[in-house]
Amino acid sequence: MAGPAQGTFRDRIGVNRRNSLFLILAFFVFVLVLGYVIGYAWLGDPRSAIFGLVLAFVVGTIAGLVSYFAGDKMVLAASRAKEITHEDAPQLFNVVEEMSIAGGLPMPKVYIIQDSAPNAFATGRDPEHASVAVTSGLLEKLDRDELQGVVAHEMAHVGNYDIRYAMLVGILVGTTVLISDFFLRGLWFGGGRSREGGGYVQIIMVVVAIVLAILAPLFARLLQMSISRQREYLADATAVRLTRNPDGLADALQKISGDREVLEVANRATAHLYIVNPIKRFEKRAKGLFSTHPPIGERIKILRAMETGGTAESIG
Q1: Pairing between β-strand 81-83 and β-strand 120-124 as defined by DSSP bridges
Q2: Does 261 belong to an annotated binding site?
């Protein structure tokens, strides 16, 4: 995949990063607008509404800083992941080292989750502060080529900065939900007050705020899921570039998706991080808009096509 094809692939990653930056900026502005509208509806005049805007900014900033510097540790702790050394799992450690070298990336920290369900994820704020976690079930049920495919997929998320994106968007979605929930609960308990001069304008702002508070978390979640699905395709393609063996990742996805074990430590907050959605019942009910992952069959189909001459660049 040299020459023009390689350039095309890098262009796709560049577009991916620019779109992510635009999305995050747009999301941030939206959260501020939501804070202003709710502040106006709550307090009744434009000057007091600045309080809502400032509160949204402060909440978003604090949540962002905490999550940026400690979000990976919270995810790993919630997943009951234990950091390992080379002596604990030599084959896994060697495969991670191989994929780090192939991708030109620093060696991440390696974790194991004691769970019989096969799955894996990567987290961190950048390649210098990245971690890769796999379950003990993954090590038991996959052969070396399949394990290499999974690790390459996770290292692709590291190299493509998907780990940072997932963390930042998660913060913004969480902030949107927090502000909306605060406002709706306040209305339910009779909060808010009218200022002199608020009149019809305040009533209109209350209606707008209620509509935004109800719809904003829903659309924020939809947007997050849509982008997450696209990043899985890109990570699959990047993994093939690292391993030059689409068969390994395709076989791994086949095994993981067909496994009947339930990943006990997974939840709604961490499900989107895994290579295959660990909340399978939910995925079956929400194959469309709310799915955190693209259809597993489609991912395998694309990878099988690469075995017979297709390329990563053909992924749309």
Answers
A1: unpaired
A2: no
Sign of the four-CA dihedral 232, 130, 31, 185: positive
21/120 same-domain check:
no
Which residues have a catalytic role annotated? 154
What domain range includes position 74? Answer: 11-79+165-189+201-226
86 labelled binding-site residue:
no
Same domain, 248 and 133: yes
Tell me: do 124 and 146 sit in the same domain.
yes
The model carries a pTM of 0.77
Quick: pLDDT tens for 18-73.
Answer: 766 776 777 778 778 888 888 887 777 777 778 878 887 887 778 778 878 888 89
Q: Residue 80 contacts by C-beta under 8 Å, 6 or more apart in sequence?
A: 113, 114, 265
> Is 153 marked within a binding site?
yes
Instruction: Identify whether 266 is part of a domain.
Output: yes
Q: Is 35 a member of any domain?
A: yes
Sheet bearing 109-113, strands edge to edge: 81-83, 109-113, 130-135, 120-124
In a domain, 1, yes or no: no
